[in-house]
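Exercise 7b. Backbone tokens:
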């Protein structure tokens, strides 16, 4: 046997290369070529093979023995909607703590946080009255944090605008005493639907406050969805301190477009709506935190989480029950496989993301006060759809390392490892320098459900949900093993 053949054979037996278990992106011929340069390449192949095998086991565990779907079933169907300050939110806190205790997490505890309590009240009523006397009922819902009209409702003529600049140019004389209708749709040309959402959502968030400055008596906002249907989508609005607060509603996309059409034909028509929502006294609630302690570097923490609260129209299955159960599942999978995590892995169920972000802010405050070292924070808050990848905000060096792992996810058709990412609840950790990572599932159907009565358990696919949990667990494993 010549020298080269002896060297090749030795390497083959030393590293036990199993081609069927290696990432599909690595060509077998290229591996054989690289084996002839053992001191440079072979150790890297050994690490890649080891990581590939463990990631395969993570996906196997989630897909064959996953618990995320049954956890989501209980959270949405037994508990239901979980708007912060509600009975459902309180029950979900008890459930999350019990769930993590039963799964044998090393430590499970509650973190106190005061949250707003907004109550929708009786079902909303709205109708259009044309100048010829024709009356059309329309589908609306109150925006979160909005004041209500009370039993008397409000009625007035409509001023339709698509942006704040147009509204300001109209001037107070053309707005005072009227109802402002913000009708700009989400731009369907965007392939990334969150870009479409970002391009329209300021109407909902700030529109009522802007309209109030010019003397409007109420606000209507076209629902934030790319679907064309009869289901209005809620979401929070924000009034400035000391500013006049006017009632605000969302209208379904079908009825909103119909209103626009009628206004062109009959500018003098009137609109009536009645809401019974109100903001009550703040209440005590909790973030729910569970963790498994690191075996080598317990003071270094990897956080994975979602928000436990939801809007009240549906049961918050995609937003964000999916993110919560996936985060719990990450730790369950790692424990079940007997992976000896070097660092502490922590799952956080944040409270009050939807209409206040109190939970995320409280968590960051405590991290800073305790001087905890977080080496990564991952958030799942884009629904339980098919995983596509992750986005990360960090240093250039961290981004290079993060993106180098993409080939390990290629066998699972997960390819997006992009710069820029995070989430609302982990955003307050930014001043600590923690790399912030957002889980990216397919987004095309997300806004069909988002903040509406359609966001229920039946809209979540079991396999897609479990694939997402596996993807998150695989990334946590890599960060734990290799750092960032």
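Sequence design result:
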């Amino acid at each position: 046997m010549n020298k080269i053949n002896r060297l090749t054979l030795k390497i083959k037996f030393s590293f036990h290369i199993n081609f069927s278990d290696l990432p599909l992106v690595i060509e077998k011929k290229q591996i054989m070529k690289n084996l002839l340069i053992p001191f440079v390449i072979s150790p890297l192949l050994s690490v890649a093979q080891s990581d590939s095998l463990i990631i395969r086991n993570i996906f196997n565990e989630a897909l064959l023995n996953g618990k995320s779907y049954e956890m989501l079933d209980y959270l949405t169907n037994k508990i239901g909607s979980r708007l912060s300050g509600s009975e459902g939110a309180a029950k979900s806190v008890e459930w999350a703590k019990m769930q993590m205790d039963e799964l044998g997490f090393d430590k499970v505890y509650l973190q106190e946080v005061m949250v707003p309590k907004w109550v929708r009240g009786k079902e909303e009523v709205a109708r259009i009255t044309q100048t010829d006397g024709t009356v059309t009922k329309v589908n609306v819902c109150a925006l979160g944090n909005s004041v209500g009209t009370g039993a008397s409702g409000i009625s007035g003529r409509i001023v339709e605008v698509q942006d704040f600049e147009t509204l300001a140019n109209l001037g107070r004389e053309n707005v005072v005493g009227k109802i402002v209708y913000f009708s700009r749709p989400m731009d369907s040309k965007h392939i990334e639907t969150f870009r479409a959402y970002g391009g329209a959502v300021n109407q909902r968030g700030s529109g009522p406050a802007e309209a109030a400055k010019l003397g409007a008596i109420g606000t209507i906002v076209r629902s934030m969805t790319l679907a064309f249907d009869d289901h209005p989508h809620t979401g929070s609005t924000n009034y400035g301190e000391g500013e006049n607060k006017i009632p605000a509603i969302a209208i379904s996309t079908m009825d909103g477009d119909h209103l626009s059409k009628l206004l062109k034909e009959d500018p003098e028509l009137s609109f009536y709506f009645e809401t019974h929502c109100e903001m009550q006294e703040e209440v005590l609630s909790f973030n729910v935190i569970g963790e498994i302690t690191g075996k080598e570097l317990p003071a270094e923490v990897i956080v994975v989480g979602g928000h436990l609260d939801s809007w009240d129209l549906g049961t918050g299955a995609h937003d964000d029950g999916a993110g919560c159960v996936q985060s719990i599942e990450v730790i369950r999978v790692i424990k079940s496989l007997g992976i000896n995590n070097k660092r502490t892995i922590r799952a956080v169920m944040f409270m009050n993301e939807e209409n206040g972000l109190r939970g995320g802010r409280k968590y960051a405050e405590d991290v800073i006060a305790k001087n905890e070292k977080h080496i990564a924070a991952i958030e799942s808050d884009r629904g339980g759809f098919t995983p596509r990848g992750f986005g990360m905000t960090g240093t250039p060096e961290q981004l290079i390392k993060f993106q180098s792992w993409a080939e390990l996810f290629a066998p699972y058709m997960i390819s997006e490892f992009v710069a820029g990412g995070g989430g609302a609840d982990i955003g307050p950790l930014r001043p600590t320098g923690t790399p912030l990572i957002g889980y990216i599932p397919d987004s095309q159907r997300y806004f069909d459900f988002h903040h509406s009565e359609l966001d229920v358990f039946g809209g979540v696919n079991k396999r897609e949900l479990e694939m997402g949990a596996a993807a998150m667990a695989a990334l946590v494993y890599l960060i734990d093993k290799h750092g960032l």
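Instructor comment: Residues 221 and 250 are 5 Å apart (CA to CA). The chain has three domains: 3-40, 56-116+281-482, 121-276.
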